Amino acid sequence: MSYEQYLLELAELECTSRYNNRIERNLRDSRLPRDKNIDTFDLKRVPAKVAHQVRSLREGAFVDHWENILAFGNPGSGKTHLLCAIGQELIRKGRRVYFTACSLLVQDLLRAKQDLQLSRFLKKLSRYDALIIDDIGYVQHDRYEMEVLFTLLAERYERGSVMITSNLPFSKWDQIVKDPMVTAAAIDRLVHHSVIEELDIESYRMQAAKKNKDKKRDGPASVSCEADV
Ligand code: ADP
Ligand code: MG
After folding, report:
1. What is the distance in A from the centroid of ligand 2 to the CA of 150?
2. Which of ligand 1's atoms lies nearest the C-alpha of 134?
3. What average pLDDT does the segment 179-183 reach?
4. DSSP 8-state symbol, 176
5. Nearest partner of 72 among 171, 5, 180, 169, judged by Cα
6. Which of 5, 19, 93, 189 has its CA 20 to 30 A from that of 114?
């Protein structure tokens, strides 16, 4: 090997190692559950339109246009898994992602506001290309909680992507937020540049439980059949 080739090889090794370290660091920092990735997600289970959207979303160009992803569907339909999988793909493409449950995020925002650190916290979140807010709609939010959440959404509007999961369609958001004006303003900002994933399919957990039950029922039955014979 010539000196030049040796140097090139060395530089390439160093680049690969730095890239891998960066991805690993960003994955850790994102707080994304590692097992919810694209390899463990069965795309055949979701409507063809969603599967088609996912193929382009995983490339990550949507974050360049501050587009949001809004995943709706009943509990267990795979919303969280799907957005986590897209989030991990974004990180592998060199983006930064932060995953948080909505209820925790609201508490963090309120605490930051109380400590007069809200703008600092928002600035920290603004460093992420995409923010995944899981489960908007499970807990009712009072005026103060919705106010800080709205501040965050307004801050990210046309500056960064937001990816949300919710079991409630927008038409029912008035059940979780009592202030119709704030709700309308939040929805308006979320929807403006967005891709909507509708997962109106049977719960994965329920399907798995049914399969399990069928297996158990068929198991002893076939044994007793054999015994009868
Ligand atoms: P949701 O957020 O809609 O309530 P989750 O994403 O938490 O649902 O999914 C419930 C469980 O089912 C999780 O363990 C998830 O990994 C699994 N799951 C859901 N959809 C799929 C899928 N298409 N392929 C593989 N696992 C899935
Ligand atoms: Mg979920």
Report:
1. 21
2. 2
3. 84
4. T
5. 169
6. 189
